[in-house]
Amino acid sequence: MENQIYIIYISVAGNTQSFVDDLTDYAEKMHQNDTSNPLIISKEVTDQTDFADETQPYFAFVPTYLDGGNGTDNGVKELMTNTLGEYIAYHDNRKFCLGVIGSGNRNFNEQYCLTARRYAQDYGFEMIDDYELRGNSSDCKRIYDNMANRVKNNI
């Protein structure tokens, strides 16, 4: 859709939902100041979501929840966010993804945003940005600008 940023996300503890809500509010303010600034349309994927064929470009937002291993040399097991990965892998949905934005807790060092990095590698698109936990206003501005630039320039 023209002049819109489409986001598909999964939220486990509410952090991603909160950030997407803040990002949507920020986009509305930017659009009120200048209607050439895109609005955000979002869709949450849950374990109850019926998979569908995506037909428009989107950005994926995924937090990191892991069980076991250190995420690098002794294994990693994704927890609670698998449904988003399965949704992206469904039919041709991966072809419409413009990039993934990851979130996590920096206290986990190498595991920070590991799910987003793995999605980028597994599905063939870029990890374009990240934020910690619920993010902050500077994260909203930076990530919105990044996505808006990619949408405007068909990146």
Automatic annotation (TrEMBL):
Coiled coil: none
MF terms in GO: FMN binding
Family annotation (Pfam families): Flavodoxin_NdrI
InterPro entries cross-referenced by the UniProt entry: Flavoprotein-like_sf (IPR029039), RNR_NrdI (IPR004465)
Protein name as annotated: Class Ib ribonucleoside-diphosphate reductase assembly flavoprotein NrdI
Species of origin: Pediococcus pentosaceus
Record gene name: nrdI
